[in-house]
């Protein structure tokens, strides 16, 4: 078994990165429910979104960017602590 099948990740995030907005799909590891949202391409909004993921799930979180077939954990250190 690999890390994904053993429940290593707390959540899975699909992120379609674009020039003006980012479409997002979030699924908690222990659920089949998916949430969809869209955030603007602004540093403050991206940081706010990343911090909310960290507060909600802790980590690790698998993030799939665009159409690339790879899964990479979002390391805890990539999310800064609240200001």
Account of the 3D structure:
The structure is a single chain. The chain has 83 residues and is an alpha+beta fold. Helices cover 18% and strands 35% of the residues. The chain has one helix and five strands. The protein has one helix at residues 43-57, and strands at 11-17, 21-28, 35-40, 61-65, 72-74. The chain has a five-stranded mixed beta sheet, with helices on one face. The termini are far apart. The model has no long low-confidence stretch (mean pLDDT 80).
Helical percentage: 10-25%
Relative strand content: 25-35%
The largest sheet, given as strand count, sense and whether it forms a barrel, is:
5 strands, mixed
Number of helices: 1
Uncertain stretches of 5 or more adjacent residues:
none
Give the CA-based shape: globular
Class inferred from helices and paired strands: alpha+beta
Q: How confident is the prediction overall: mean pLDDT?
A: 80
Distance between the termini: 39 Å
What string, H for helix and E for strand, traces the elements in order? EEEHEE
Calculate Rg over CA atoms.
13 Å
Care to count the β-strands?
Answer: 5
The strand line-up of the biggest sheet is 3-2-1-4-5
């Amino acid at each position: 078994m690999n890390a994904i099948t053993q429940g290593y990740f707390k959540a899975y995030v699909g992120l379609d990165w674009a020039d003006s907005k980012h479409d997002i799909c979030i699924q908690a590891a222990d659920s089949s429910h998916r949430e969809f949202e869209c955030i603007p391409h602004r540093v403050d909004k991206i940081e706010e979104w990343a911090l909310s993921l960290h507060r909600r799930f802790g980590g690790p979180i698998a993030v799939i960017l665009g159409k690339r077939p790879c899964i990479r954990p979002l390391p805890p250190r990539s999310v800064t602590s609240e200001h």
